[in-house]
Amino acid sequence: MQRPASIRRFERFYWAHMLLGLVNSVVALWIFPSAALSGIMAGSDGMVGRLSGAAVALPFITQILLWYLIARRGNLLAKYVLAGLTGLNLLGAAYGMVGLITGKAGVMPIALVASLASSACLVVALAALYRPDTPGWFREAETA
Question: Which residue in 34, 42, 80, 89 has its CB near the most CB atoms, within 10 A?
Fold first, then answer.
């Protein structure tokens, strides 16, 4: 079966979400780390640096797996897992917005804006999975 247009749209926005998140994580952890993180990394023997690398790599690998299962295999369970993870992502985005408004974000405002843009891409990607042309892709029962 040829992939529906909504699945292709999902892919574009989901990859944008993943790449924005990856760049944001790299910038926050290694290029402009917070003062607290810099102090922790300076006092360690390199273990924190390796752990922060794993903290970026493991979610990115999970996201690639979800992309593959949804966009290439049409896995319905992966679609619902992504919906749940998107809900958690939006809770984090709301927390970041409150921090930005109150001035207690704890991160650079540009990093928060990039995170919010990443979340917006994720919501658009998820919405594409619920368009009318996708039930056949996920082999869902057609309801009339």
Answer: 89
Tell me if 126 sits within 8 A of 79, measured CB to CB: no
Q: Which long-range contacts (CB under 8 A, 24 or more apart) does 31-39 make?
A: 32/108, 32/111, 34/106, 34/107
